[in-house]
Prior knowledge:
It is a single chain. The chain is an alpha/beta fold. Helix content is 41%, strand content 16%. The chain is built from 16 helices and 16 strands. The chain has helices at residues 12-32, 39-55, 57-68, 72-98, 135-138, 141-146, 160-169, 186-193, 206-218, 241-253, 273-288, 304-315, 367-375, 390-399, 434-440, 465-474; strands spanning 101-103, 112-120, 123-127, 150-154, 179-181, 199-203, 223-226, 232-235, 265-269, 321-324, 338-341, 358-364, 383-386, 405-407, 428-429, 442-450. The radius of gyration is 26 Å and the shape is globular. Nicotinamide-adenine-dinucleotide is lined by residues 127-131, 136, 154, 156-158, 185-186, 189-190, 193, 203-205, 208, 211-212, 226-228, 260, 353, 355, 381, 423, 428.
Amino acid sequence: MTVTSETHPGSPEHDRQVRLSAQVxxxxxxxxxxxxxxxxxxxxxxxxxxxxxxxHEPAITAALHSDLGKSAIEAYLTEVVTTTNEIGHALAxxxxxTAPRKVSLPMHxxxxxxxxxPEPLGTVLIITPWNYPLHLALAPLVPILAAGNTxxxxxxxxxxxxxxxxxxxxGEYLDPAAVQVVTGGVDEATALLAEPFDHIxxxxxxxxxxVVMRAAAEHLTPVTLELGGKSPAIVTASADIAVSARRxxxxxxxxxxxxxxxxxxxxxxxxxxxxxxxxxxxxxxxFYGADVAASPDYxxxxxxxxxxxxxxxLDGGGYDSVAIGGTPDRDARYFPPTVLTGVDAAAAVMxxxxxxxxxxxxxxxxxxxAIEFVNGRAKPLATYVFAADAAEADRVVAETSSGAxxxxxxxxxxxxxxxxxxxxxASGMGRYHGQFGFDTFSxxxxxxxxxxxxxxxxxxPPYTSFKxxxxxxxx
Length: 475
Ligand code: NAD
């Protein structure tokens, strides 16, 4: 138990730390007692997690609607099925993932066998954000459990309905000695970070990531940081403009732009810029109708704090006009799809990740300008390039760096289980999804086995000149 010197018995801080320490100890001893050591036990937990998702889908849908105004189909597509698919993929491959991997030995190491044996790390702390509050909490649990670890999950206080649902119901499905849920905010997260963990998996913003990493350093705990950034969408003059606009609009306004891999802004070739903005307007109309506020498919901003942050970004100016917009409603946390044109690189909307439904459109004279613009900023979580000319897309792949690149679409790489998901540079470190997640939460332990015969004297001192000559020949 870790009770810090700042807390004294009887204080709320002390009581909280004692309570959380007990929860951490429960899963730590669960790990020591091997609750998910056998592969069969891991499979059973993953199947239970799937049962939770199936049996509680109506409650999940209601919670996501309460937190983010998500439509039922969006909740299903972006939260439920993305998680059940991750579970299905893990169940289909867990036998091969957990099997020792054979390594061939160099001649001078024979006879013998080499194996890489995956072993679990121990107990993992998961800290998650509010924007996909179900998926981002449960998807990391899949490889954590598949790899034989136990976990403490701290979902986001900013999506309270989903967090409360997880805290209230997950324990009915998962072994409490394998997974504990801790609700709460910064205080609880801080208290948890004082505890020793074997890995910390944090999803959220870069500022808090530094707090997490500093706390992890105290215990030399490895971290995975799934962060965000300004993911650009580059539209070249060769692009199919109608399709590009529709796909960017879909990626932007899904979850009202509150998506880590949403296209943050557009760099469009000036020759097709007007056509592009008009096509985005047509897509918005097609998706949500003339009265977007009345559309059941358009969600809400998670909190008034975030609503005010978006308003401030707009008020910050640095653009010529609002090409597409509407009237925001603070009480309803309704923020309309908003497209800005004539945007200056120094505009407020270009100073931080927007994480909302504002789409700045910047024009470029040629592809070189777009590449230079992207390379002049922090490495984003995703880069989208729309081009019919494959050579243009190849240039973006080769000449920029980001967590992922998608050509002629947005977001879809997220759902490919064979892809690692994660950032690079400021957009994060480490990766998960599919086997990449399993490897993140495993230690690949090399195991070399040698027999005792033969045991030639060649390798042992005294290193006579004869032995030295022979060794130099052999090795
Ligand atoms: P958030 O405010 O919900 O914070 C995330 C978590 O950090 C919460 O559980 C919160 O309680 C905890 N936290 C907050 N302050 C803390 C502190 N001082 N110490 C310890 N823990 C603390 O969410 P957010 O950070 O606003 O999330 C949005 C960001 O997350 C965006 O930048 C987005 O791009 C990024 N994101 C990344 C991914 C990804 O997979 N890469 C996914 C979703 C969101």
